[in-house]
Design goal:
- With 268 residues, the protein is an alpha/beta fold.
- The chain contains eleven helices and eleven strands.
- It has helices at 14-23, 51-55, 72-80, 105-109, 132-138, 156-168, 187-198, 209-218, 223-237, 247-252, 259-266, and strands at residues 4-6, 28-32, 40-42, 60-63, 86-90, 115-120, 141-144, 150-151, 175-179, 185-186, 203-206.
- The protein has a seven-stranded parallel sheet with strand order 3-2-1-4-5-6-9. A two-stranded parallel ribbon has the order 7-11. A two-stranded antiparallel ribbon has the order 8-10.
- The longest helix has 15 residues, at 223-237.
- The mean pLDDT is 95.
């Protein structure tokens, strides 16, 4: 099989996709703005001259859209350089065709000869150090606007495993994959599990959507981004993420990772 181009190759899912491809005996072409390791290739969304060389000879692409005010024109131009490639797009369970900014991307991918759109729920890895929720847990207090609603948190490794199958299976999946963990938890429940691993109490402090937006702005996030995150929490409060799918097991042949297992193995 030809190389597979992995965008976002140093990120949470991209790095795991690279490892999964290599484990399957497929050479991953790891895209990054600053290649320094073997197997990495220069790629910059803001420099279209890097598109062609990165895509030359690849059979499939793991696509993470650029962080931009309007990523659609960039992705559309990029895909013009890959008319024959299978494309697997990382989206989100919170994104549909009506979602501003990101809602149009799945439609672009569906034009490819083979495609899949991954729509994972919220990452378990958000609870690790270096993330807002994870750092808040270490301080003993997680703030959200989700109330007592539940989320089927999903492990990034499971997302990557589904991506690898979508990239490599003989027949393209040509579908959207809603990806969740095996059970839904409230933030109260998740905070209790994380607190036991950290060795100190962690409480969940539910606030209103507006209060959460102000909290995020005080934490240093731009106003527009804080508003978007607060509205996503509001959707969770309304039950948007209280659902469990069998996608991981159906696609990969193994069960999805449970949150308690994740906490035991990754929370420090």
């Amino acid at each position: 099989m030809s190389d597979v181009l992995v965008l976002g190759s140093t990120g949470t899912t991209g790095s795991r996709v690279v490892r999964g491809l290599e484990a399957a005996g497929v050479r991953a072409r790891a895209a990054t703005r600053n290649p320094v390791k073997p197997g990495q290739i220069r790629f910059d969304w803001e420099d279209p001259e890097t598109y062609g060389p990165a895509l030359d000879g690849v059979s499939a692409v793991y696509l993470i859209a650029p962080v931009a005010a309007d990523p659609q024109p960039l992705v559309e131009e990029f895909l013009k350089h890959a008319p024959d490639a299978r494309v697997v797009l990382l989206s989100s369970s919170a994104v549909d065709e009506h979602t501003p900014v990101l809602g149009g991307l799945p439609g672009l991918v569906r034009r490819q000869p083979g495609w899949a759109v991954l729509r994972p729920s919220w990452f378990m890895q958000n609870f690790t150090a270096g993330n807002l929720v994870g750092d808040s847990a270490r301080a003993g207090r997680i703030v959200t606007a989700t109330g007592d609603a539940r989320v089927a948190f999903v492990d990034a490794g499971d997302i990557a495993a589904v991506a690898v199958r979508a990239l490599l299976d003989p027949e393209p999946h040509n579908t959207g994959h809603l990806i969740t963990g095996p059970r839904a938890l409230s933030y109260d429940e998740a905070a209790g599990i994380v607190g036991k691993r950290l060795g100190h109490p962690v409480v969940h402090a539910p606030v209103s959507t507006h209060e959460y937006q102000r909290f995020l702005v005080r934490d240093g996030l731009p106003e527009s981004y804080a508003e978007m995150l607060a509205l996503l929490d509001e959707a969770i409060r309304g039950g948007a993420e209280d659902r469990v799918t069998d996608t991981v097991e159906r696609v990969t042949g193994r069960p999805a990772r449970d949150f308690r297992t994740f906490a035991k193995e990754e929370i420090r």
